[in-house]
Model the fold of this input.
Amino acid sequence: MKFDTPATQNPIDQLKVIGQSVNRIDGKFKTTGTAAYAYERHDVAPNQAYGYVLGASIAKGRIRAIDDTSARAAPGVVTIVTTLDTPPLALGQMNYANLFGGAEIAHYHQAVAVVVAETFEQARAAAFLLTVDYETEAGRFDLAAEAGSAEPVGGDSGEGSDSGPGDRVGDFEGAFAAAPVTLDHTYTTPDESHAMMEPHATIAAWQGEKLTLWTSNQMIAWSKGSVAKILGIPKENVRVDSPYIGGGFGGKLFVRADAVLAALAAKAARRPVKVALTRPLIVNNTTHRPATIQRVRLGATRDGIITAIAHESISGNLKDGPPETAVDQTKLLYAGAHRLTGMKLARLDLPEGNAMRAPGEAPGLMALEVAMDEMAEKLGLDPVEFRIRNDTQVDPGNPERPFSQRDLVGCLTLGATTFGWDKRNPKPGQVRDGHWLVGLGVASGFRNNLLAKSGARVRLEVDGRVTVETDMTDIGTGSYTIIAQTAAEMMGVALDGIVVRLGDSDHPASAGSGGQWGANNATAGVYAACVKLREAVAQRLGINSADAVFADGVVRSGNRAVPLCEAAASGELVAEDAIEYGDLSKKQQQSTFAGHFVEVGVDIHTAEIRVRRMLAVCAAGRILNPKSARSQVIGGMVMGVGAALMEELAVDTRRGFFVNHDLAGYEVPVHADIPHQKVIFLDEPDPQSSPMKAKGVGELGVCGVGAAVANAVYNATGLRVRDYPLTLDKLLDRMPDAA
Ligand code: MOS
Done:
């Protein structure tokens, strides 16, 4: 189905099932432990052996030799595959450092061997008997030190944000020089780890030339292609299956070493092999969100109209790796006639930097939205009012191009009323609650809505059940449920009459889970397939499909009413289609918006920061399921608190690795850190986005939150910190007098 004109009225608009806060249909499998995740799929292949991955203990150089004599003799060892036995493998999609093969080491914990044994413990014990002789080379590990040599680059995040090395509108320098009120500050964000709960894990089995991978992956079609490319085998010979995923946040967009090494190990062992990456390997072997150094300059009139806006970001990566696209939102979020955005990239020899939830916007808004707070204060304006004064309804770089929908102002005003913003004291450091200094902060949230082709197959089975099959993934987001809701609405059956099968590369290729594009595109693909199935049903029943109404398990047309299941009485009906997009999103900018509000307390004696309450008001198209959408947003808000207050990969700038490579050292928020969250959706169906009229919301939840926390800390204390995370050491020696 081609979607190239705005959606009109369609069966989804009935909102009998869509738009309802139904519980997850997979909830009972997850809460009873019967949803099997990759490493637990004991039943898919017999006689599974365990692979243990050894990572390089240097960051740069080469391997002279590997002595595996004692490892091979260790109890239970089946086989060992080393990187010296294997020619360098090709790179997969969004992959910039070789996952395996050859003597060169490009980053710390790059895989050097996989040891296969009868048990996990035997494999691990044998792996530590390997002796690797390295020739170490000097590397570049310190972004601040390399920033001066960073080169201008363009690049995209792989998730829709896309910026050039220097994008200009008007004359930024002239307007900035002429502006009566200006701001020029630099903000830094650290390297961050996805810290998803489920590790990367894969079980691999070969049947002749055919390879099956039971794995944990967000993007099945990408990964099928990547596995084939990396291993140099035909795509048709690869099957990837990933029905349950315990979080990914971008870290499982692509194939990683667990999948490749399981495949190589299974071939060498001549039996199925399972490989999970240990937590340290997740940090240094896989990918992370790269650190940034961001300079924001704003120029405004005295009444708070922005005339000049510039945002430049420096990040680092391995050779050929992409920049962190932290300036992208600044092209679209606020008005202003004279504009500059640009990126520079420093060559670093740290592990591979890559997409993490809202790549670009998440760190970018942490800078821009603090700058907006600082500028509001300079102007003597309320920060909500300053943002509203600079709203734009068109793409500022291309005023012919409106937003398809944009109610940032509504998000901010409703948020302000709901949160009690009028009680905020604009003078910082004034509000006390016992030993707590209390402050309120606000930030705008922004993230684009992305369209991508997405396919599905639907079956009306003889027993009347409707089965949906697509390679779409559910990474904990609720895909199963919203896909079932879509099919139920379209076919006029109850939710429990729908069976959803996801994550299998034998199913039609979907948009997959990434860039908050999954929900709208995957359900639109199911919509397209259901339109075809409705036609097939009508044809078989001899009913005119144009006026057929599908409701309550019955198909009605004129004065005829036939149970839906009768259409399949003589045999199952199958329909397959995909949603494909025209250029609607080129004519109008499709984005999502939020107002994020945060209250913090800062201990006047210790500078300990506690979040007290949070609110997000989101404008993100039609909300397909308010319960699962809320879960996405509150999860994003938690991640925003982590980014603001605790998350930071500590770089060993001499040895070139992330030191705090486990969940004891890499701190993320826990329940006790997040006392109260509220989410409001401005439910606004967007006919430009798809027949579902929905947009992404999963990344909007994190975008802007970090800045709202930082702005609240400033309001509480009067102390501005421009280097994330805001740990108490950055406040303590400047704290106001407790007396
Ligand atoms: Mo993307 S960082 O997987 O949403």
User: Anything to note?
Assistant: The chain has 16 helices and 35 strands. The domain at 42-138+197-284 is CATH 3.30.365.10 (Aldehyde Oxidoreductase; domain 4).
